[in-house]
Write a structure and sequence with these properties.
By secondary structure, the chain is an all-alpha fold. It has helices at residues 9-12, 16-30, 36-44, 48-65, 102-138, 140-154, 158-169, 178-208, 212-219, 224-232, 237-260, 272-279, 288-315. The chain has one domain (54-66, 89-319): MetI-like fold. It comes from Saccharopolyspora rhizosphaerae.
Length: 320
């Protein structure tokens, strides 16, 4: 006879599949829900495009911040007997038309070029972001007035507008100082570029203010400033950050364009754009004068564009 007090293994031991399911459920309960930025960072670390672009950008930022780690040569020291000499063991990148070490000038030039891009991007995003979030949140006549005003700047060609602004600023100055020229170039880029970031922020603010949590905050009597800072702004930063990352590379290229035209940075400032401008009369006779600064410029712009693409894909739920 079967002992009624005896328990079988089936009754006391759960099935392996059930145990694994319970463990998975417990882990899911213990895991904290990830936000947009943490989820994006988790996704970015798995993207080779992001890792490659980030590595290049980190190296370039180190070069710009600490050029003395890479060269101790004076970039303005001239030796006309070495003018336009090709790369060698003594000078890795050769010499320019005045006998200056091209490697030292390329390393030192990274600081001015990247500085212009960083500051111009920061100023553009701040100016356009503040105006755009105000226009998108309040709407009505405020939005209409700001939108029509921004269209004036968007209809102005960038190069033509920069020529007019920079030429006017330097009309009565024979040789402007380096700091003055950098400030002028940064301000010009920001003035001509802010409408793009304004439109991006405006669109994001219009979408954010329609959300239930924003309507609830307004219904509870929160002031517009509090609603914007606590609820609207955090949910509108993603598209602006993507634009800023891509625009930074574009602004570095814009500095080189303006310097090549003779209205941007100029001597005694050392930048990649200035070096490219100085090499235009010697491209056939000494192509290395153009190759090295242009190569660094292209690599920098491409790295920021790649980084922006990776950030955009990570922050866009449709790309998941």
């Amino acid at each position: 006879m079967t002992d009624p007090n005896r328990t079988t293994g089936l009754a006391t031991t759960p099935a392996p599949e059930v145990a694994r399911a319970d463990d998975g459920a417990d882990k899911a309960k213990n895991e904290k829900p990830r936000g947009l930025w943490s989820d994006a960072w988790r996704d970015l670390r798995r993207r080779p495009l992001f890792l490659i672009a980030s590595s290049i950008i980190v190296v370039l930022l180190i070069i710009a911040a600490f050029p003395q780690l890479f060269t101790h040569t004076d970039p303005n020291f001239q030796d006309l007997t070495k003018a336009r000499q090709t790369p060698s063991a003594e000078a890795w990148f050769g010499y320019d038309n005045l006998g200056r070490d091209l490697y030292a000038r390329t390393i030192i030039g990274a600081r001015a070029s990247i500085l212009v891009g960083l500051v111009a991007t920061l100023l553009t995003v701040l100016l356009g972001g503040v105006i755009g979030i105000v226009a998108g949140y309040f709407g009505g006549k405020v939005d209409t007035l700001i939108s029509r005003f921004s269209e004036i700047f968007m209809g102005l060609p960038f190069v033509l507008g920069a020529i007019v602004i920079l030429t006017t600023m330097n009309a009565d100055i024979t040789i402007p100082s380096g700091a003055r020229v950098i400030t002028q170039v940064v301000a010009t880029i920001a003035v001509l570029s802010w409408p793009i970031s304004m439109r991006i922020m405006r669109s994001a603010a219009i979408a954010a203010k329609q959300q239930d949590y924003v309507k609830a905050a307004r219904a509870l009597g929160a002031s517009p400033a509090r609603v914007i800072m606590r609820h609207v702004l955090p949910n509108t930063l993603a598209p602006v950050m993507v634009y800023a990352t891509i625009a930074l590379g574009g602004f570095i290229g814009a500095e080189a364009t303006l310097s090549f035209l003779g209205i941007g940075l100029r001597e005694p400032v050392v930048s990649w754009g200035v070096m490219i401008a100085e090499s235009r009369n010697y491209i056939q006779a000494a192509p290395h004068l153009l190759f090295f600064p242009a190569g660094f410029l292209v690599a920098t712009v491409l790295a920021f564009v790649m980084l922006g693409d990776a950030v955009r894909d990570a922050l866009d739920p449709k790309q998941k």
